[in-house]
């Protein structure tokens, strides 16, 4: 096949072409990538999109070709995201392994607790740049309080590391997010509830780092460890953590192309969500029936089931539980809904929900690299609505 004709093919077809040239079966390619045969098949048929650079690089490595050859005419200028200035300072604090100095400023546990609450509230409102600006000082303060009073400072330091991991993930700084999540797990050791809470961010980091296959057993085990013996009579906060970890495990399974495992884990999570109900936010999880059904959308998109994802999305928006979720949660879901519409060949509705996401939490679109890439993809389609192309222009991805 000539280079020009090959470049004109969709990326999935190019994967199939080079796999054939290397005399690899779909199963062998899947095994070398740590994916399922079904995942490879969906990529090659164009049912599942390749929207992560790291995944494309892994495929190119296994096929022994340059990434640019695999991308062909799909190659687009990289989406540049200007990170908030505080990210480097956050990294410096996280990378400081020396013992925290004494609390010379005399900060009380109550003052640090109030600041932690403020950080989570700002994050859930989608104010990521604002959170990053005061994270360095908050991290240092929490470390000092913990050094002075390990008992009272222990839960605060876990929560600071959790919110740090959460906001760094939004900004696409996966390496630092992983470090923050690891710190949270280390500090939480010995406290089953705090370990479970920190494992939520760890699961998200593993997925973002392309370690979904590793994440599934880790998250499943963490979920079953926090599950109350009596689910009906157990604390709603622990049931919520268990359910949230099962959701994260399901999303990781979907990322591996494992339909059956994803469906089973989401079914378990739905049973727990029915016990908790909507309108709660135990341990900053937002867990409930609505959250589980939104996760079904994400899983369906990752598995290439665009129609199923759209049905779940449109079904869930009319619930009261949708309005009760944090702005960050709703905006992130709308980005996933846009992915579903794009996969279904509907750039009009993809653009519409992206505009809604920007109205809900502007930073989700303007500062999250994954969301900016989706906006760019929509804007490239001639059928995209005017509002979507204007949004793309305003955030500099055209």
According to CATH, the fold-level topology of the largest domain is Serine Threonine Protein Phosphatase 5, Tetratricopeptide repeat
Structural class, by secondary structure, is mainly alpha
Detail the poorly predicted runs. Answer: none
Assembly state: single chain
Number of helices: 23
How many structural domains does the protein architecture include? 3
What do we call the CATH homologous superfamily of the largest domain? Answer: Tetratricopeptide repeat domain
Number of strands: 0
Pfam family, one: HTH_31
Domain HTH cro/C1-type: 15-70
Protein name: Helix-turn-helix domain-containing protein
Organism: Micromonospora echinofusca
Structure description:
This is Helix-turn-helix domain-containing protein. It holds the Pfam family HTH_31. It contains 23 helices and no strands. It has 398 residues and is mainly alpha-helical. The chain has three domains: 72 residues, 434 Repressor (Amino-terminal Domain) (Orthogonal Bundle); 238 residues, Serine Threonine Protein Phosphatase 5, Tetratricopeptide repeat (Alpha Horseshoe), CATH 1.25.40.10; 73 residues, no CATH class. Helix 2 packs across helix 4 and helix 11 runs antiparallel to helix 12. It is globular and about 65 Å long. The mean pLDDT is 89.
């Amino acid at each position: 096949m000539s280079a020009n004709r090959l470049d004109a093919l969709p990326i999935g077809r190019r994967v199939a072409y080079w796999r054939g040239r290397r005399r690899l079966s779909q199963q062998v390619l899947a095994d070398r990538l740590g994916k399922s045969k079904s995942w490879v098949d969906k990529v090659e048929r164009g049912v599942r999109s390749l929207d992560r650079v790291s995944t494309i690089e892994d495929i190119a490595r296994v096929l022994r070709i340059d990434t640019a050859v695999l991308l062909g005419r799909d190659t687009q200028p990289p989406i540049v995201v200007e990170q908030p200035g505080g990210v480097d300072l956050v990294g410096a604090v996280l990378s400081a392994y020396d013992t925290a100095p004494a609390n010379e400023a005399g900060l009380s546990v109550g003052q640090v607790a109030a600041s932690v609450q403020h950080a989570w509230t700002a994050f859930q409102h989608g104010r990521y740049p604002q959170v990053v600006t005061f994270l360095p000082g908050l991290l240092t303060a929490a470390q000092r309080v913990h050094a002075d009073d390990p008992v009272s400072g222990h839960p605060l330091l876990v929560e600071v590391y959790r919110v740090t991991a959460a906001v760094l993930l939004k900004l696409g700084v996966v390496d630092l997010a992983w470090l923050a999540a690891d710190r949270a797990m280390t500090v939480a050791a010995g406290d089953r509830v705090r370990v479970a809470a920190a494992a939520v961010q760890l699961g998200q980091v593993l997925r973002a780092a392309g370690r979904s296959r590793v994440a599934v057993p880790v998250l499943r085990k963490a979920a079953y460890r926090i599950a109350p013996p009596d689910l009906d009579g157990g604390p709603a906060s622990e049931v919520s953590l268990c359910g949230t970890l099962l959701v994260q495990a399901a999303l990781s399974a979907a990322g591996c192309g494992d339909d059956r495992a994803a469906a089973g884990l989401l079914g378990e999570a739905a049973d727990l969500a029915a016990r908790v109900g909507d309108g709660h936010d135990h341990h900053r999880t937002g867990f409930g029936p609505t959250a589980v059904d939104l996760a079904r959308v994400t899983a369906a998109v990752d598995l290439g089931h665009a129609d199923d994802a759209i049905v779940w999305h449109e079904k869930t928006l009319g619930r009261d539980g949708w309005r009760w979720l944090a702005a960050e949660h709703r905006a992130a879901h709308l980005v996933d809904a846009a992915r579903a519409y794009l996969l279904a060949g509907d750039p009009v509705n993809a653009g519409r929900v992206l505009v809604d996401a920007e109205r809900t939490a502007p930073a989700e679109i303007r500062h999250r690299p994954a969301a900016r890439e989706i906006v760019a993809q929509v804007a490239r389609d001639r059928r995209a609505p005017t509002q979507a192309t204007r949004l793309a222009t305003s955030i500099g991805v055209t």
